[in-house]
């Protein structure tokens, strides 16, 4: 069935069906179903086709959202897919895990005018899942094969996005990664109930089928030197992401019962692959039967609390120092966590870990309150004197965010300049570092951020690398004449 657009006055917003909480916490399957074709048509037809599409400007990738919504409404699914993938190398993944409520859907004119936003993310997912099912997505066959090669360090979203664009341009591409599977955060950081791993695998497999080489279990600086890679390739892209976890600094924080979020999520995802994970099997990184406290308010914290419920935790509590309105994570994820039985302690900060060196018994929290807004409208927080509480806990998970590793030291490249935050410094308006032929993109440049921003920067870095290599080729030809 096909529709015209601008039907928001007669077609109500409907999201894909969602598994009931009591059912979904028994497994790690994705909780949202795909649209049926007529549902996708109908929901896409709600688009108002605005003259100034704020949804597009609210998207880091600047996706041509109104156009592919119109095509979807008209039943032109393959055209919708091709337009969607023209600006995004991972559209079906972004459709699943982007915080659309803060990006495209939050910017939708209908949302701002009281008509409820178009379900952009669900349509994006639907169209691009269909593209795989229908065989529209095939291995990359470049129009021109080039003799130059590019090495990419990091098989996460930025590295995958760059590899896709560079291979399309005809370059030989090799991706190096320290893990045993490609995907980075997509594979080991994000739980399957948000992003099932076969969705990631089919993208990385497409790259492999397109001639991209993956060198896994490869630790740069140990297994191979950075200089070797510089000698081997015409350009290098550092797309390692940020994996150094921020840790608690309160009394008792050194207890073995306090674990880092990424370690916890990685163990869970590895078990999902069927791997042997000793720290999971011995209970260190397993919430089964335990009272769990997660500290943090971002999407990683939501991933942890929702993983704990599925592992069979006795009780799960999230502690965050600000209120719900000021938390950095997606409101949709908070709502999902609440449905799944997670309790939130808002305006609460950790003060001490209770227990001993081997085990924790609880977390002492300090109650907080918001202060008067500053000139920018930002409210601070302060302690409420004498307001403390003790929360029982068998395991405490730190989800306090991530910082960059010391890349110049790890790679033995003192010439790689870093910012005061430890991120790699690139030249103004570019992705090239201050080491010739070495580029950087994604979280290692901008700090811990969203997958969609990593995709955007990976694609843009690929364009910079292409310009750099071709400029060198032209210079060499001129010199030879």
Provide a concise account of the structure shown:
This protein is an alpha/beta fold and 481 residues long. Helices cover 37% and strands 16% of the residues.
How would you characterize the overall build of this protein?
This protein is of the alpha/beta class and 481 residues long. It has three domains: 21-133, Fumarate Reductase Iron-sulfur Protein, Chain B, domain 2; 149-242 and 404-480, 3-Layer(bba) Sandwich (FAD/NAD(P)-binding domain); 252-398, FAD/NAD(P)-binding domain, CATH 3.50.50. It contains 20 helices and 15 strands. Strands 3-2-1-4-15 form a five-stranded parallel beta sheet, sandwiched between helices. Strands 6-13-7-8-9 form a five-stranded parallel beta sheet. A three-stranded antiparallel beta sheet has the order 10-11-12, with no helix packed on it. α4 packs antiparallel against α5, α14 (261-273) crosses α16 and α16 runs parallel beside α17 (331-339). It is globular, with a radius of gyration of 23 Å.
Q: Which helices and strands appear, and what pairs or packs with what?
A:
Blueprint: H1 21-24, H2 37-44, H3 54-57, H4 65-73, H5 77-87, H6 91-97, H7 104-107, H8 109-112, H9 120-133, E1 149-153, H10 157-168, E2 172-176, H11 185-188, H12 197-209, E3 213-215, H13 226-232, E4 235-238, E5 244-245, E6 258-260, H14 261-273, H15 278-281, E7 291-295, H16 299-310, E8 315-319, H17 331-339, E9 343-345, E10 348-355, E11 360-370, E12 381-392, E13 395-398, E14 402-403, H18 407-410, E15 438-440, H19 443-446, H20 451-480
Protein name: Glutamate synthase, small subunit
GO molecular function, one term: oxidoreductase activity
Domain Dihydroprymidine dehydrogenase: 24-135
């Amino acid at each position: 069935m096909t529709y015209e657009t601008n039907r928001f006055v007669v077609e109500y917003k409907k999201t894909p069906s969602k598994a009931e909480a009591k059912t979904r916490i028994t497994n790690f399957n994705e909780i949202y179903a795909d649209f049926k074709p007529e549902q996708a048509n109908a929901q896409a037809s709600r688009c108002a086709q605005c003259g100034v599409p704020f949804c597009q400007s609210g998207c880091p990738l600047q996706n041509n959202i109104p156009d592919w919504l119109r095509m979807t409404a008209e039943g032109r699914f393959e055209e919708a897919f091709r337009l969607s993938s023209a600006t995004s190398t991972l559209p079906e993944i972004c459709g699943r895990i982007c915080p659309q409520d803060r990006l495209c859907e939050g910017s939708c004119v209908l949302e701002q005018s009281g008509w409820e936003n178009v379900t952009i993310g669900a349509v994006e997912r639907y169209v691009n899942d269909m593209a795989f099912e229908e065989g529209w997505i095939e291995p990359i066959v470049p129009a021109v094969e080039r003799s130059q090669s590019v090495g990419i360090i990091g098989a996460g979203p930025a590295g995958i996005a760059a590899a896709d664009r560079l291979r399309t341009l005809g370059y030989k591409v090799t991706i190096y990664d320290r893990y045993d599977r490609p995907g980075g955060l997509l594979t080991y950081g994000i739980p399957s109930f948000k992003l099932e791993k076969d969705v990631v695998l089919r993208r990385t497999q497409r790259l492999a089928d397109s001639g991209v080489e993956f060198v896994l279990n490869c630790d740069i600086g140990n297994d191979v030197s950075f200089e070797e890679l510089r000698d081997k390739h015409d350009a290098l892209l550092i797309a390692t992401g940020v994996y150094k976890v921020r840790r608690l600094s309160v009394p008792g924080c050194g207890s073995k019962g306090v674990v880092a979020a990424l370690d916890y999520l990685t163990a869970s995802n590895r078990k999902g692959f069927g791997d042997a994970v000793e720290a999971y099997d011995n209970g260190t990184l397993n919430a089964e039967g335990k009272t769990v406290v997660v500290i943090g308010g971002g999407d990683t914290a939501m991933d942890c609390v929702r993983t704990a419920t599925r592992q069979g935790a006795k009780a799960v509590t999230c502690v965050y120092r600000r209120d719900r309105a000021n938390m950095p994570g997606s409101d949709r994820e908070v709502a999902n966590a609440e449905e799944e039985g997670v309790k939130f302690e808002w305006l609460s900060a950790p003060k001490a870990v209770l227990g001993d060196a081997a085990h924790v018994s609880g977390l002492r929290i300090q109650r907080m309150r918001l202060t008067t807004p500053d000139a920018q409208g930002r409210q601070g927080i302060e302690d409420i004197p004498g307001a403390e509480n003790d929360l029982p806990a068998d395991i405490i998970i730190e989800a306090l965010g991530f910082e960059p590793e010391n890349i110049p030291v790890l790679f033995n490249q003192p010439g790689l300049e870093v910012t005061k935050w430890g991120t790699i410094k690139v030249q103004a308006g570019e992705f090239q570092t201050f080491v010739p032929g070495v580029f950087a993109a994604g979280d290692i440049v901008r700090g811990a951020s969203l997958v969609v921003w990593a995709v955007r920067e990976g694609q843009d870095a690929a364009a910079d690398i292409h310009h750099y290599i071709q400029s060198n080729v032209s210079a060499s030809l001129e010199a030879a004449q």
